[in-house]
Amino acid sequence: DQIMxxxxxxxxxxxxxxxxxxDPVRYFTNHSSGKMGYAIASAAKKLGAEVTLVTGPTSLExxxxxxxxxxxxxxxxxxxxxxHYRDQDIVIKCAAVADYTPVTVHSNKFKKxxxxxxxxxxxxxxxxxxxGERKEHQILVGFAAETENLEDYTKDKLVRxxxxxxxxNDVSKEGSGFGSDxxxxxxxxxxxxxxxxxxxxxxxxxxxxxEEVMEMMKR
Length: 219
Ligand code: PMT
Description:
alpha/beta; Rossmann fold; eight-stranded mixed sheet; two-stranded antiparallel sheet; 27% helix; 27% strand; binds ligand PMT; FMN binding
């Protein structure tokens, strides 16, 4: 058998958006297509890892040989991610998890009445922060999707959430972030190193991220 760089390693990747239900016909979501996360799952599999992909609703095909956990809401993503956490060697949180969810979920379709409709939202639990708090041997990688102050906001997430690396992407740039086939990322590690990359396909970006992770594992 060929020995692969991630043979015997367990990698969990989260991907896609979450959906926060408001009533039986309406929900809040975001523009994540799942492409970046699925590319990481696929690349990790090709490097020999045992991969678990926790995914929100997307229209993508599951990469072959990858174990999948399908979730809808931020709450479900929290529960599934935490339940698989202990076993993992590497966790990469690429999902675009809703930060807020409706306080009230109507059991019947909300009927049209007034000219305005005010909806109250409450914070969801921060999955990445919870993983950071429970971290044992795992290498924990987060993402930061920003539209301004990319480097500062990305660094802030690294420290606040006890991460080993954070991948920042400026989602306001053309050809970067949500939905596109390409991404322009910056990798910031706990040791303070900062590596900006040019615009790459999401497959290439996935391999660059895993290269950095494997580098960290050697130490
Ligand atoms: O799916 P694609 O169309 O390919 O697009 C890729 C992407 C833009 C979604 C991806 O590259 C990306 O940036 N993912 C993170 C999006 C995001 O939610 O960023 P954030 O800065 O809001 O969150 C920071 C981190 O906290 C993320 O790792 C997120 O998974 C995590 N988080 C956020 C909220 C929450 N309740 N729990 C979390 O764990």
